[in-house]
Amino acid sequence: MMLIRLWKYLRGYVIIEVYGFGIERLINMSAYKGLLLWNLHREGNKLLMSVGLGELKKVHQSLIKTGCKVRIREKKGLPFILHRYKKRKIFILGALITCMVLFFLSSLVWRIEIQGNERYGKNEVLMILKKYGCDVGKVKYNIESKKIEDDILLDYPDIAWISLEVRGSALIVTMVETVEQPDFKVKDLPPADLVADKKCLIEYIVTRAGQPTVKKGDVVTKGQVLVTGEMEILNDDQSIRYQYVHADADIFGRVYYVITDSIKLDYIEKNYTGKEKKDVYFNMGSLALKIWRPFKYDQFSDEIQSQKNFFFLDYELPIGFSSITYVHYIPVKKRYTKEEATSILKKRLTRSIKKAMDTDVEIIDQNTQYNIGKNKITSETQLIVIEKVGVVEEIKERTEEWTEENP
Amino acid sequence: MGKKKKKKKDKVNKEYHVKPAERAVELLSLPKEVVLGTPVVNLEGKTGLHIVNYKGIIEFSEEQLVVNTSLGLIKIEGKGLLIKSITSEEMVIRGRIGGVAFK
Fold first, then answer.
1. pLDDT at B94
2. Residue of B nearest to A27 (CA)
3. Residue A320 in contact with residue A307, Cβ under 8 Å?
4. Within 10 A of A129 (CB to CB), how many other CB atoms are there?
5. What is the enclosing helix (H) or strand (E) of A267?
6. pLDDT averaged over chain A?
7. Phi-psi label, residue B75: left if phi above 0, alpha if psi -120 to 50, beta otherwise
8. Burial of A296 from C-beta contacts in 10 A (0-12 / 13-18 / 19+)
9. DSSP secondary structure letter of residue A53
10. What percent of chain A has pLDDT over 70?
11. Nearest CB to B86; choose among A23, A27, A42
């Protein structure tokens, strides 16, 4: 039905008033001539009807025959609109040019988005794409995705999969890099010792390569060699030859730590009143314009700063609003009780221990002593842990010195 | 004049008889309105009427529409009658339909 209505509108039609005596005859005659009439209804003595533009003439002929008078009431349809714009050809031309320019501009690539790159930086990928002909400003229909994808995969063995998809005027590049092979311990490792990185008591040592120089129960200092990679080998003729390996061992040692902490009993508590005032700035680049400045609180307040920049499509402009919120509080002088203060110290201690220690560290003993002074409380914690010790230190191979005595 | 009277009598008798042509079309299950030009009146609810195969409009006003068909006059009474569309073979009527009668 909509199609018929559209069709009538496109062809153009008129609503006419007919009055006279032979109205019914007129209807019959027009219908028999094959004309389509619609919306015929009586309005008092008049008959109103709608008839297509092309058939109006034939209706007129019938009208004259039946002796009826006619008057055009309304003109509807596309032909009438075109007639109105006959004098405005430039307008139509402008509209056409706009469409063409729009179409042309949207058939270029304006943005390249890269997803899935881990080892490759965005610029690297962009340069690679440029080499194969994908760049901002290129006509998007000319980019042969399949061919370029295949070429890149062939030339770059560390890209496992890459896909180029043109979405609108953006080129979306999705890639997956090959999984890096795990580094196996290659025999080409340089000769090295294992050296203690902190003073400890050796608890446990299992050597995989090299010669251990310490055993369980030894106290070692920082820098002391624990496992040496220089191995003395006796030759057949009792002379000593040195062979070098990369020392490797699991060494666990008992380390003593002392952690001190202190807290003052007097402190200032922030009693937030709930009042807030906001300064709003409008900033462009590095300029900041205050546009809303309420009275600044001379009293105490926390400052919270927030910034929101405008976006144009995907690009963040250096223009935006920022605000500084002043949250008012009344400082109150308070004093911790001994229990409160010690619990705060305890919490701080557990947090710092967690942060400092690695996962494979075992805490054997923890002993905290609190010293309650007049205005502050200090804590001293002795911590005994068992942790992995030993760092790799490369050794220089002993070269035979050529001297005059020793050729 | 005499002949006409006879025809009238015949018509009265024949109202209860089916014409041979009509019979044939019925047996063959062909659509009567296409083959014989029988007028067909479709009533859609209270507000729509659809007439196929008519010969002419005798009278048309907002309250009454009289249509001439091959089988006689059909009178349609109603309120606010409007001929939605009309071609040489069918017409569509909209408006509040009161009644359809054969004159």
1. 92
2. B57
3. yes
4. 22
5. strand A266-284
6. 82
7. beta
8. exposed
9. G
10. 91
11. A27
Chain B: residues touching A (Cβ < 8 Å): 56-62, 80-88, 91
Q: Torsions phi, psi of A28, nearest 5?
A: -60, -45
Q: Strands B72-86 and B64-69, how do they pair?
A: antiparallel
Among A27, A17, A11, which Cα is nearest to A76's?
A11
Rounded CA separation B3/B19 (Å) = 20
Q: Phi and psi of A400, rounded to 5°?
A: -75, 130
Greatest C-alpha distance within chain A: 148
CA A198 from centre of chain: 42
B62 to A36: CB separation less than 8 angstroms, yes or no: no
Residue with tokens 């018509």: B11
Q: Rounded distance, CA A248 to CA A199, Å?
A: 19
Which residue from B58, B60, B87 is facing A36, i.e. has the nearest CB?
A: B87
Strand partners, A48: A17, A41
Nearest to A248 by CA among A265, A222, A275, A226: A226
Highest mean pLDDT among A268-277, A384-393, B83-92: B83-92
pLDDT one-digit tens code per residue, B9-36: 555 445 556 778 778 888 888 887 787 7
Helices (H), A68-203: 78-84, 89-105, 122-131, 145-155
B6: Cβ contacts below 8 Å, ≥ 6 apart: none
- Residue A56 Cα, gap to closest chain B Cα (Å): 15
What is the per-residue pLDDT for A99?
94
B77 pLDDT more than 90? yes
- How far is the alpha carbon of B5 from chain A, nearest alpha carbon, in Å? 29
pLDDT score of A390 more than 90: no
ipTM of the complex: 0.71
pLDDT at A102: 92
pLDDT at B92: 93
Enumerate residues 6+ apart whose C-beta is below 8 A from A339: none
Model confidence pLDDT, tens digit, residues A258-279:
888 888 888 877 777 777 777 7
- Quick check: A101 pLDDT over 90? yes
C-alpha separations of A158 from A118, A174, A278 in Å: 11, 14, 53
Residues of A in contact with B61 (CB under 8 A): 42
Instruction: State the number of CA atoms in the 13 A half-sphere of A70 facing the CB.
Output: 22
Q: What is the pLDDT of residues A177-218, one digit of tens each?
A: 887 777 666 567 788 888 888 888 888 888 888 888 888 888
